[in-house]
Design brief:
Length: 227
């Protein structure tokens, strides 16, 4: 963590502890340093909820925020859906930590485990013979296209897990093997992964090359075409 980032982020460590003390053991509070996406977690309270710890990586949503620069016009995004690697459901919110000049240096994230609440809500709805379980509406990013306005997040530990999840979320939609895709189709997949922020992480090029059955130089060439 750079000295300038530390100056701002350390102010939020006691705030994170304060929030966790109020909200209780089902609320995870995380401070991210955006200067190191592969090891962005610099402070965490109740990390047992997601299994994460200091030194772990960013999330897919953090990378998307950095890539789309969704923080310029907003100070936070609130009440969106997140999922954990152990199958949990979360109601999450993210506050953008900025310098006095408006430069983004970090994020303060709250993840409330609502897994058991959803089970209880479903049971209550069944007893009352009402409609489907009410859906917790996620926050929106104004910069996103209309069809992508619902923010979601996947909470995991290390950067390799994050990369695998992000690449798989795109390639799993393929209806034919990657080696049968045309060059233009592969370029479009690289474009989508680039928009998600996959290439902000070390190893992103290698993961994508393996997933698409192409060489790393080819991935770099496709990225050049996107500029």
């Amino acid at each position: 963590m750079g000295s300038e980032n530390r100056q701002y982020l350390e102010k939020y460590f006691p705030i994170a502890s304060f929030i966790a003390a109020i909200m209780g053991p089902k609320c995870e509070v995380v401070v991210h340093d955006i200067s190191d996406p592969e090891h962005s977690i610099v402070h965490i309270e109740n990390g047992h909820i997601s299994g994460r710890q200091v030194g772990d990586a960013s999330t897919d949503l953090v990378l998307k925020i950095l890539k789309t620069e969704a923080y310029h016009e907003e100070q936070y995004i609130a009440n969106y859906r997140a999922s954990g690697k152990m199958g949990q459901s979360f109601r999450s919110s993210t506050y953008f930590i900025k310098t006095d000049q408006g430069k983004l240096v970090g994020l303060l994230c709250l993840n409330i485990d609502i897994t058991h609440m959803e089970v209880a809500a479903e049971w209550i709805q069944h007893i009352l013979q009402g409609g489907p379980t009410p859906y917790i509406a996620p926050a929106t990013l104004d910069q996103a296209p209309k069809e992508e306005k619902q923010a979601t997040e996947y909470l995991q530990g290390n950067a390799d897990d994050l990369l695998q999840h992000m690449v798989s979320s795109v390639t799993n939609r393929l209806t034919i093997p990657p080696e049968r895709l045309s060059s233009q189709e592969k370029i479009e997949i690289v474009r989508e992964l680039n928009d998600l922020g996959v290439f902000l992480l070390k190893g992103g090029v290698s993961q994508v090359a393996n997933a698409l059955s192409i060489s790393e130089p080819t991935v770099y060439r496709y990225l050049q075409k996107l500029k």
